[in-house]
Amino acid sequence: MDVLHTTKDLYDWALSKGDPRVEAWPLMESPVPVLTLVALYLVMVYHGPRVMVQQKPVSLNSVLVVYNLGLVGLSAYMFYEFLVTSVQAGYSLRCQPVNYSNDPLALRMASVCWWYFFSKIIEFLDTTFFILRKKNEQITFLHVYHHSTMPLNWWLGVKFVAGGQAWFLAMLNCFVHILMYTYYGLSALGPHMQKYLWWKRYLTILQLSQFFAVILHTGYNMTTDCDFPIGFNYAVFIYAITLVLLFSNFFMHTYTSKEDQHTQVKGRPTHTSQRKLQ
Q: Mind telling me the catalytic residues?
């Protein structure tokens, strides 16, 4: 009972440190709603493919075009808001504390941070569509790890540090998502679009580059005297490193391995050609 009381007191104390400006915003009063959504997402990831085993893949091309282009629009809106608000407020790349006041620009930054958090819940549909289309090979550890942790990370971000240093990584990610969901939207138009989608590997390189930029940005801030919660800097720094490792692994398996296989095939006869020679 003492442990329960201590845990409850710690929980109440932590929530009391939250930003009062965002407390009444959707999903922000407590972590229970977002934890529930993430738990339901993981249940879907586990059971969804099993439910679909006896079902035919669902054709969702039109839905995917609308969904992906809708996320392009949302990402573009958020990128614009992060960029314009940070410029007008005179944000610094070297050190940017959170402005907890009700100044219009401070509230505008907090608002776009909330939309960024909410976009990560919308992106659960990425996995839903994979399951319905029986594209289970796309539901990798990297995919599930990224989709399940981002809503939690950004709930904490909005609850406690809506703005400040966080604007930089969110703005970068919005820019990447503009290109990424454009790619997915074009891909959903049909096979005839494939000849225009040669830039997929460069999209992965861009994704990796943003994580390196976040590591440099956060790492620099960790070495300076800046009035931004150091715990959040450490968390972002470590999280970005995990994504670099996972995306690097994905890149090597997706592109480097294929290039090696292609080189090997060009360098010696295939099994089929060997049979023909015999």
A: 146
